[in-house]
């Protein structure tokens, strides 16, 4: 990585790559990902999930009097070539999350994306449950928030019932004691980091969460302040 960064910082290499990007064959799908600099927002110490247009690469470029591609090139080499960017692929046309608010509150909506599955080298969905409470219940300033009771229910009993799992999702006698104890004010997400711990050195994005005091599965504490206790009381759920 360090060698790549040094080579990319070479003025002649930079000029060549920027020139080639300007003369690349027309590919609208590729351009929608690589050239839409108005939707790229640098992530620093803490992610801002509802940034303003002037905080984008295009906004920064306009203030500096430079091309957006050049600003992007320089920014990508920050932090030893590990600078991360927030890129809301969909639902950010109006530069806010108002349409997402409408979808989240629709009665037919189920809130998910917590499995950290596909495209894990580009997207980190594992932070979604934490993000829902942190941003939508506590931190949002550019529109209405959502009640924490609604967000907890939507991620527990509502989803469990929709999937036919009626033995969990609520703090009721006789149900499975799967519980998160959260320090609401300390709930936070770290800057995403790339790790290469998959088979054959495959990469994935990880984003650590803090503020979880304890996690219980079947009444047994499996996590305490982010550390695993060694207990494994869960089991694979199969449909019948």
List keywords for this structure.
single chain; 240 residues; alpha+beta; four-stranded antiparallel β-sheet; two-stranded antiparallel ribbon; 10 helices; 10 strands; 16% strand
Structure report:
With 240 residues, the protein is α+β, with helices and mostly antiparallel strands. It has a domain at 1-91. The protein is 33% helix and 16% strand. A hairpin with a 2-residue loop joins strand 8 (212-217) and strand 9 (220-224). The longest helix has 12 residues, at 11-22. The chain is globular, with a radius of gyration of 21 Å. The mean pLDDT is 91.
Largest beta-sheet details = 4 strands, antiparallel
> What gyration radius follows from the Cα positions, in whole Å?
21 Å
Quote the beta fraction: 15-25%
Structural class: alpha+beta
What is the arithmetic mean of pLDDT?
91
N- and C-termini, Cα separation: 49 Å
Order of helices and strands: HHHEHHHEHHHHEEEEEEEE
The helix fraction, in percent, is 25-40%
Q: Which residues sit in consecutive blocks of at least 5 with pLDDT less than 50?
A: none
> In oligomeric terms, what are we looking at?
single chain
Number of helices: 10
User: Taking strands numbered 1, 2, ... along the chain, how are they ordered across the largest sheet?
Assistant: 3-8-9-10
